[in-house]
TrEMBL record:
Location of the GCVT N-terminal domain: 31-146
Organism: Paraburkholderia antibiotica
Protein name, per record: Folate-binding protein YgfZ
GO BP: iron-sulfur cluster assembly
InterPro entries: GCVT_N, YgfZ/GCV_T_CS, YgfZ/GcvT
Amino acid sequence: MNTPLASASGNASINASPPAPAALPVLPRPSADEFAAVVEHGAYMPLSQFGVIDVTGDDAASFLHGQLTNDVQHLDAAHARLAGYCSAKGRLLASFLSWRSGDTIRLLVSKDVQAAVQKRLSMFVLRAKAKLADTSGELAVIGFAGDVRGALSGVFDALPDGVHVQVDGAAGSLIRVPDALERLRYLWIGPKAQVDALLPSLDGKLKRVSPAVWDWLDIRAGEPRITQPVVEQFVPQMVNYDVLGAVNFRKGCYPGQEVVARSQYRGTIKRRTSLANVAGETDTVRPGAELFHSDDPGQPCGMIVNAAAAQHGGVDLLVEIKLAALDAGSVHVGAADGPALRFLPLPYGLPAEV
């Protein structure tokens, strides 16, 4: 299955180890007004943390179908899909939101892994009629959250009526993404010059806020994002991608498919992603930081996937963790005496593991 990927040369690989801890600044903290704008009213935010890869050509869909964890071959113009890109060992190298824009398939990806992922994918195009291009500089990515439908109706003739439904208009694509804190959320991706020209018309209706608010909302939606510090750390089920619809278990082969399928059908999913909060502000609470259980301080029991400053203080987290570690005791960042996690309910249920 996907033999070329299994034999990929080292210069095509993505760094699999999280960077060593460093004296990093505290995560950016939006103002109280920015949080309130989303929760109580409506807001928009330019999302500089994302890049876009355009895939074109007669074989674009079939090529991506053979590389990603979700069904791209049958992706239609009215829907977007979450998908993962795995190593041959079934570990996630990247996560994408994929959708069609005309004859192009677009992939929204964390900007810090985009170049490496695009290079790796390009190596396996081989004879396929498909071309990958970085269009981040040509496109604007804007997030909307809260009471925003009225403002968006001035830009788009119709609005998506369900999660991962998309509509195309003269100003680009509008995609509804999972709600956070029961607030609607949308992504607008369109030609940069055109989007920039239209944004001022929204300023009287919506507050412009920091992109860090979107990171927090993604966490509260329970949707993990693969960024550089956690590349090649997780099988898709460890970050709930099977629950979130990012894995199609009926499609054909893709890199790591055997590992992902074996985890699903042999009852070996002993780790999941949970939502948590850590009090205070600390530079140790970062993606890639290991977690330790109070009853077993000698070995890590999990890892931080995503982190963002929280509305009511501290840092909200998505953490990949051994399910057994949630039964009793306490979980801490960095060491068994590090900052303690307070677990919160996810906005969706997880299957009972055996």
